[in-house]
Write a structure and sequence with these properties.
The chain is α/β, with parallel strands linked by helices. The protein contains 7 helices and 9 strands, in the order E-H-E-E-H-E-H-E-E-E-E-E-H-H-H-H. The protein has a 9-stranded mixed β-sheet, sandwiched between helices. 44% of the residues are buried.
Length: 241
């Protein structure tokens, strides 16, 4: 099976639970660090799927690697290679599909229960609500031809599906280590608590229980997403996901 390409834009914004999920299922992956100068592949043909993680940059910044990633997304869509985008990655997918990415009315940092749209509940095991972890200031529009999957209270567009491609304005992939690192490196942001920003104490309270619920949702979503990968015929032995 061809590897899943994972584009990581910051050393603390790692694939976390997603990488563990792929490894447990024997799905190979290849990490790229575009913001650090990694040479990006010329196209998506050598990969079974593409994952784009978070970033402190904006998809509207005039950065060469942002434009190259958009080109990769266009190629993946043309080749029917599933794309998964978390936060910045979701915004990048939205922009690739012609939607705008703008400043949200308020910051969104911390835990939130999101509503699942009725037509998208199959992505989430039939759930009407799911937990999510947020750390973002911008928001995407829903691209033409896409379906909103999730919505929140402070940010309406929290997720969308475009065929087998998924964009999320939230994080399902974070682990305890990642959340604690973000809190440590984002002290100045957390000190502005209020108006959509939770305090560090609020974020870290009952963290293992929160992450267990989050990863249950992530598992369901990721199982659905990998079902769209171009599996070789022998992959039927993996039926017990």
């Amino acid at each position: 099976m061809k590897p899943v390409a994972i584009f990581q834009h910051d050393r603390t914004q790692r694939p976390g639970y997603l990488l563990r999920f792929l490894e447990q299922r024997g799905i190979p992956s290849q990490l790229f660090f575009p913001a650090e100068g990694d040479r990006l592949p010329p196209g998506a043909a050598d990969f079974s799927g593409l994952v784009f993680l978070g970033s402190n940059a904006s998809v509207n910044d005039p950065l060469p690697w942002v434009e190259r990633e958009i080109g990769l997304m266009h190629d993946a869509i043309a080749l029917d290679r599933p794309i998964l985008g978390h936060c910045f990655g979701g915004q990048l997918l939205a922009r690739t599909l012609g939607a705008e990415v703008t400043r949200n009315a308020t910051p969104c940092i911390g835990w939130e229960t999101l509503r699942v749209t009725p037509g998208a509940r199959h992505w989430f095991g039939g759930a009407c609500e799911v937990p999510a972890f947020n750390w973002h200031y911008e928001t995407f529009g829903i691209p033409r031809g896409a379906q909103r999957t999730l919505f929140g209270t402070r940010c309406l567009n929290k997720g969308f599906a475009f065929g087998k491609h998924l964009g999320f304005q939230c994080h399902l992939e974070v682990t305890e280590e990642i959340v604690r690192e973000w809190c440590a490196s984002g002290q100045a942001e957390l000190e502005a608590a209020g108006g959509g920003i939770q305090t560090q104490d609020q974020i870290l309270a009952n963290l293992p229980e929160k992450l267990a619920r989050l990863h249950k949702t992530a598992h369901t979503v990721y199982v659905m997403w990998i079902s769209g990968l171009p599996w070789p015929k022998i992959a039927h032995v993996h039926g017990g996901w």
